[in-house]
Each structure stands twice: as structure tokens, then as C-alpha cells.
Amino acid sequence: MQILEQAQDLPKAGNIKAQWVSLWTGPAAGVVLLIAALVFPGFWPPTSPTMDAEQVASFYADHTAWIRLSQVTFNLCGIMIVPLLMVIVVQMKRMKGQSHVFAYCFLTAVVSGATIFALSNVFFLVAAFRPERDPELIQLLNDLAWIVFIAPVGMVVSQFVLLAVAVYFDDRTDPVFPRWVGHMSLVIAVVMAPAAGAAVFQTGPLAWDGWWSFWVRNGAYAAFVIVMFFVLRRAVYRQAVDDGVVAA
Predict the structure, then answer these.
(1) How far apart are CA 99 and CA 86, in angstroms?
(2) Tens of pLDDT along the chain (248 residues)?
(3) Does the reported pTM lie above 0.85?
(4) What is the Cα 15 distance to its own chain's centre?
């Protein structure tokens, strides 16, 4: 908060203040999304792809209110994580030795991923909209919701790869992000990629309820966001010092 207090009347203060506010939406979004995840009964444990139509229909009939509450919350608040990711874009544009193409590609990947996430919320909500409908239709909507939620990891993987490449191209003596951020991003990209198998496998670690596709995939992304919050906080502060917005 020191940055906000000191950055009142300086020409470059607006950029720093906007980044600082956007950065701190991350923890707020994290708390809200964690509550929504805890409320959704389909996560504890994740419902199985092997459930038959009658079992799936019974699940939606028995938990209609909680499904609606959690998915409406995801739908309304999932986008709150985007401002933090946009701070990454702003910092990528500050990097030396590379054009802004990596930053803009990262931005496009984030928007695509957020859209896919929103679609999964819609499918869960449609399945819960008329729990009395034909169980086969509810099962179809449930399959769509889960596969869209877990399997389309291409946009997320590309985010990590683009960030890593940008970090490696930043060849100045005092880079925006430390080099280990690039290493971490590539590791997370590799870890998340197998979750694409959720569109194929109904059992095992790569099924949508599997320990890899569900727990490792989602845990890796959460870990990335948490780590990047602290990395970005340092980067924004250093930019504020470099721009003369705050004293070192």
C-alpha cells in the first residue's frame, strides 16, 4: 500500500497504481473462487466419468441449489483473476530484447482460457437448470461441463510457454522477472499438458476425476498464480522505483 500512498501526483503514477490495484484483485479472487470450489459438491470428490445417466441425474437432483450457487459464483467472479494476469502482460512489455508479440500472444491465450472456463460454468448450470429432464441429456451436459473444464489446456500451456520464452529473451542485466520464472513456467506447462487426456480417458489418472488431470492440473495453476503474485509485487515496486514514483 506504500506505493499507492506515495504515487499521488507524479506523471507515471497512474500506470503503477493501476497495476497495483489489479495485482491485489488476485488474492480477493482467490478467496472467492476457493469458497465457490468448496461449495460445489462435484469436487469433493470429483464426480466420476463412469457414473451412469441415472446416477448423474440423481447427483444434480440432490445438489441442485449448491451446484447453482457455486457455478453462478464462478461465472461472476472467475474473471476477477484476469487483472492479475494482465499485470504479467504489462511487465512482459517492459522486457528488453524482444518485441511485444509475446505479451500480446499471452493476452490472447488468457482471454481464450477465460472464455473456455466460462463455458464450463454454463454447461454445469444448464445441467442443473432442469434436473427433472431426461437423465441421458443431463449426463451429456455433465460430460460437456467436465471435459470443457479440464481438457482444453492448450491455451493455459501456451501462456506458460510464452512467458518462459519472454523471460529467456529478456537479456538485460536486471531483467523484469528472474530467470527461474521461465523454468517454473515450462515445468508447469509440461505438468498441465497431460490433462488434455480427460477428453479421452474415463478411468485412471488422466480421467477428469483423476489425480493428475484434476488435482495436479488445478494445483499447478493455483501454485503459479500464488507465486506470480509475489513476483509481480516485486516487479511493480521495482518499476515504481525506476520511474521515480517512489523512493528506493
Answers:
(1) 17
(2) 555 544 444 445 668 889 999 999 999 999 999 999 999 999 999 999 999 999 999 999 999 999 999 999 999 998 899 999 999 999 999 887 666 899 999 999 999 999 999 999 999 999 999 999 999 999 999 999 999 999 999 999 999 999 999 999 998 888 999 999 999 999 999 999 999 999 999 999 999 999 999 999 999 999 999 999 999 999 999 988 887 766 55
(3) yes
(4) 24
Q: What are the CA-CA distances from residue 53 to residues 18, 117, 138, 143, 151 (Å)? A: 49, 24, 7, 11, 21
240: Cα within 13 Å, side-chain hemisphere: 27
Angle at CA of residue 195, ends 41 and 66, nearest 5°:
10
**Residue 42 and residue 48: Cα distance in Å, rounded?**
9
* Residue 132, Cβ density class (10 Å: 0-12 exposed, 13-18 middle, ≥19 buried): exposed
What cell was used for 212?
Answer: 493428475
Query: What is the length of the chain?
Result: 248
Say which residue the cell 497495476 belongs to: 19
CA distance 228 to 81: 12
Domain boundaries, the chain: 10-242
8 A C-beta contact, residue 123 and residue 155: no
